[in-house]
Specification:
Number of strands: 16
Strand content: 25-35%
CATH topology of the largest domain: Pseudouridine synthase
Helix content: 10-25%
Number of domains: 3
Shape: globular
Number of helices: 6
């Protein structure tokens, strides 16, 4: 809920006990540094008491108010039955979507219609009002060009639970990526903050002022001509374009990713070779661990088939 001074939120049960700087960053979708700056400036209060300490823990039912973070008026999307997508799993609390490449997840600048959310509101109207009015049911995102498994909350309880699991990094997310070049090590971790590029605000980059980001990777196959590597990436955090930025930063941009240096001669793809192949989380109602796998789509499979037999991954 917002007002002229900023925004205010009641802390949900799923976020009980979290640090206040993490809560501000999560709820306002800003960096931890910006959240800390608001605290230092005395613009944050909990139950009408000003809070300065970023490590202060918040509790269920407390009212958090942040001045100066006024949100823009949210566009409420409409239902569009023409938007099609496959469903990997459905029950009363959650959906797991097999998102195709080219489908935008939720409305935003330049994409107010024709998104996954518009299609979901037509087939599952109960998600309206779950979480954000502009992004109902959406707890995490995939880029337009990325395909694969995506969780959607059908109830507020499920939304709060999944958001909390993302915050504590207990959601399992594995991606398949085809990168240019050969990696020095078969396994590794890229640990580098990601934020808006100071040179181009439409792109993300590794920048000191960015939000913490960690991507694990493991090479499963490699080819000599052209020199490319098939990599399984594991997200420990979920920053915008994280895998694309991290792999590009270490000299291995994704095939087809023109934004981050992945368009090269010898092999052509009209989108980044990135697929959300595996998703796992604890069921919000039962606590049971659920695991889902999305098969590699035809366009990406065709690229691999065209490469022929790979070399051993450690060569």
């Amino acid at each position: 809920m917002s007002d002229d001074a900023g925004f205010r939120e009641l802390i949900p049960p799923a976020l009980d006990g979290e640090r206040i700087d993490r809560i501000i960053a999560l709820l306002a979708d800003v960096s931890r540094n910006r959240a800390a700056a608001a605290l230092t400036a005395g613009r944050v209060s909990v139950d009408d008491e000003v809070v300065y300490q970023r490590s202060r823990r918040v509790h269920e039912g407390e009212e958090l108010v942040v001045a100066g973070f006024e949100r823009e008026t949210e566009h409420v999307p409409g239902a569009e039955p023409s938007v099609r997508f496959d469903i990997l799993y459905a029950d009363d609390d959650v959906l797991v979507i097999d998102k195709p490449s080219g489908l935008v997840v939720h409305p935003g600048a330049g994409n107010q219609t024709g998104t996954l959310v518009n299609g979901l509101l037509a087939s599952h109207p109960e998600i309206a009002g779950v979480g954000s009015a502009a992004r109902p049911g959406i707890v995490h995102r995939l880029d337009m060009g990325t395909s694969g498994a995506l969780a959607v909350a059908r109830t507020q309880m499920a939304y709060d639970s999944l958001v909390a699991q993302l915050a504590d990094r207990s959601v399992g997310r594995r991606y398949q990526a085809l990168s240019w070049g050969h990696f020095e090590a078969v396994k590794g971790v890229v640990d580098a903050p990601v934020g808006r590029s100071p040179k181009d605000r439409t792109r993300m980059a590794v920048v000191g002022s960015g939000r913490p980001a960690r991507t694990g990777y493991e090479v499963s196959a490699a080819w000599a001509s052209p020199a490319v590597s098939l990599v399984t990436c594991t997200l420990e955090t979920g920053r915008t374009h994280q895998i694309r930025v991290h792999l590009s930063a270490i000299g291995h941009p994704l095939l087809g990713d023109g934004t981050y240096g992945g368009e090269r001669s010898g092999l052509v793809l009209d989108r980044p070779f990135l697929h959300a192949a595996h998703l796992s989380f604890d069921h919000p109602a039962t606590g049971e661990r659920l695991e889902f796998d999305s098969p590699l789509p035809a366009d990406l499979r065709a690229v691999l088939d065209g490469l022929g037999e790979p070399e051993p991954a450690d060569q």
